[in-house]
Design goal:
This protein is α/β, with parallel strands linked by helices and 366 residues long. Helices cover 41% and strands 16% of the residues. The strands form two sheets. Strands 3-2-1-4-5-6-7 form a seven-stranded parallel β-sheet, sandwiched between helices. A six-stranded parallel β-sheet has the order 10-9-8-11-12-13, with helices on both faces.
Amino acid sequence: MTIVHVVEAFAGGIAVFVKSLVQHMPDDLHIIVYGERPEVNTFKSLRKDFPRNNVRFLRWRSVQRSLHPVKDLAAFFQLHAILKGLKRNNMLDAVHLHSSKSGFIGRIVCRLLHIEKVVYTPNGAPFLVSSNEVTNFIYKQLEKLGSLFGGQVVCCSQSEQEAYQEAGIRAITINNGITPEFLSVAQEPMPKSKFRVLTSGRILDQKNPSLFNQIATYFQDLDQFEFIWVGDGPDNAVLTASNIHITGWLTPAEALRYVQSADVYLSTSRFEGLSFSVLEALSLSKPVLLSDCVGNRDMVMKGANGSLFQQPYQAIVSIMQYYNNLSMLDIMGMHSATYCKSTFHIETTQQQYKNLYLSGKKMAVA
């Protein structure tokens, strides 16, 4: 089977997601039609992590993240030409669209080309992105319009599916998955001498670095605490607390060493699809302290492996409780690892997607 992945944002969690599907479907050919974000990851740096025997890449040159009528129209015609050529040469059995821009343009193109096996994974509902209600309303209408052109909407967490259903868009859930056995292999953690609270990812508004900074600021005068942000991003200037260390971009192995060294993994995100960074923390037996938002809610197992919070003071209280009860962290970490293995395993994820590719099920028009 030949699966064509259309990826506007070939970076971050989406790149991890596509790579995991490719690696765990070695008997299928994967053609990745990609847009590049060089300010995050270059194609060259991402390509080396993909297998070479079952993957082909085609550049989608005009596509970009923001709305831009002229460039979006050019991206539409380019994608139409690419998919038309692949279909004509019998190199297309199913199309998997990743992220909102690919999902909107791709579903229109697939309808025009009479491609029926179409899957769309938002990897984070775009109508939850902004704190501006008008912007979110526009994106919600675009998602509704896109759904009229068919394709199966697949959310990567139950709470994301609920957000789509509330918006009047039919969807199913296939949880994101990772390989816990691989990540749990013993690694040498980064050395530390303090109670380490850590997060990982791009420093941008969606991750709410101002909230991370607010929480860290409370602990500035307590020398036994440190806060680590693994990664970098355009909003790094927001992280002003003296006890925050920004690592900059690291290799995956180096990043995992930092996560391995954490006492608690903290997420202050405004929304998520289903964060691979949090999944890695679960797999590495870390207690998690997560903002109560779409995507994060699915990662906490009724408090057994961590907590959800809605206000900064709740996160601060939880961190103090964890510090004063260090023995509970190992137990919570064990629950994290067990929950990750049972609920977010890549073998289950890839099998469900493969069944969907094969079925060719079309979403009923809402």
